Amino acid sequence: MDERSEFEPLTYCFNKERAFVSFAHTKFPLCIGGIRMMPNVTKEEVEKLSISMALKLATYQLPFSGAKCGISNEPYDQKVLEEFVGEIADFIKGANLGNIKMKACTGYPNDVFIQLVTGPDMGTSEEGYLDALRVNGMGNIARKGLLSQISEKFELPLDNILTGYGIVVAAEETFKTLNATQKEVDPLDGINYSIEGFGKVGSGIAKLLKGRAKLKAFSNRFGTVVAKKNSEYCTDEGYFDIDKIMPLFLEKGDHFIYDLDIELLDTDALFDVTVDLLVPGTRVERIDQEIAERIVKARTKIIVPAANYPFSFEGRKVLEENGVTVIPDFLANAGAVIAAMLEFTTKSFNASLEKVAMDLVHAAVSNEIKELFLDGIACGCRIGEKVMQTEKSLYDISIERSISKLKFMEETIDREQATNLKWIADEFIERTLLGSFM
To answer: pLDDT digits over 266-298, tens only?
Structure first.
């Protein structure tokens, strides 16, 4: 099943079609999605990212519309970001579609009210976004959120940790299902893994998996490095020493990869490394048919994406048909969205906010993965190397589940109720944690 077939995004283009705002749908008035600034961002990429966001929100029964903003430009250009935020100010403040100055595709009623809840994404920063709001007269909403706080336990922003934690939980449940006979063992103990895009989320995953799983290879925009035994940044076993590479990453950013004194391979070389777990974390449809065939040849077992919309349809099918277990991106990388609900709740908690946030992410993602595998088994899906009895995959079933939840919310939640963030947050937290903190 191709997720694009379920949506007709509403997209606004401007600045000579080098910047875009896309809404996967307008079924709910509040539309959530970040601002990406990277070279060669396209309208199609932004639309696919908005669809991924819509599926993510629906999966966790959060009544928001999926959105995405994209700017085709070198990252972290503050002047360009400020100009862009000025252009989309009407969306951020909230307006009827008929009152928006930019032009979009037709087919949507002009009297539909939408409001964009946005923030930093790849190639933008929170400080940059907050400054852009202030420059454009929206200082009243320019405030730091929960996710920008530094984790007491992991010493990284909570955004890094909580998004990464969703991926770790999804991996835990997946390995647990595939190794059902080893119930008393940590499902991630001793596995090796690779990360595409060792950055904000990748660093969080590495911190979370320290002492459990072994980082064999990673890439960033400059290339790929594979751990080796005689490097001062690697263990005697030949895996990266997280305690040694993390300070270097925090000091130098992406350029730290040059200081490792390890041969720098091209970025695609990451997919030739044999690992138990691959975490793709960069651009839309990065894993096309050719890359998928390389992953299969490398005998990678499980893919849990940090990136949104990382597979082309053809690439995903190659993986699934060759026994690679593919976990849907919109299910696994929702940690930050899930935890953000704590910013709006009226409920109080006995534990620290960081612990509650992690418990909330664990409960939500763990439950979704378990239910997905149960549905997959019931439908005769291929799981790992088991024989496929149906053309459907776990990914297909997850899309169907998400669309079904979206339709249910549309039928049962009116638009006025869907602007009540406190109600949405309280209902979600109570449902997800089953009253365990109440």
So the answer is: 999 999 999 999 999 988 999 999 999 999 999
CATH number among 3.40.710.10, 1.20.1560.10, 3.40.190.10, 3.40.50.720, domain 158-400: 3.40.50.720
Strands 192-196 and 214-220: parallel
Contact 62, 428 (CB under 8 A): yes
State the pLDDT at residue 16. Answer: 77
Do the strands 192-196 and 277-279 form a parallel or antiparallel pair, or are they unpaired?
A: parallel
Local confidence band at 141 (pLDDT 50, 70, 90 cut-offs): confident
Residue span(s) of the chain under CATH 3.40.50.10860 come to 3-144
Does domain 3-144 fall under CATH 3.30.565.10? My reply is: no
Report the DSSP beta bridge partners of residue 240: 234
State the pLDDT at residue 389: 53
Residues 6+ apart with CB under 8 A from 58: 402, 403, 405, 406, 409
Nearest CA-CA partner of 312 in 71, 45, 67: 45
230: left (phi over 0), alpha (psi -120 to 50) or beta: alpha
User: For 410, how many CA atoms within 13 A lie in the half-sphere containing its CB?
Assistant: 13
Mean pLDDT on 304-310? 94
Is residue 32 within 8 Å of residue 53, measured between CB atoms? yes
The first and second tokens of residue 251, run together, are 């000091």
E-strand spans in 315-385?
Answer: 325-326
Q: Lowest mean pLDDT of 8-17, 23-32, 168-177, 302-311, name the range.
A: 8-17
> Predicted confidence band at 200 (pLDDT cuts at 50, 70, 90)?
confident
- The backbone torsions φ and ψ at residue 67, rounded to the nearest 5 degrees and listed phi first, read -140, 170
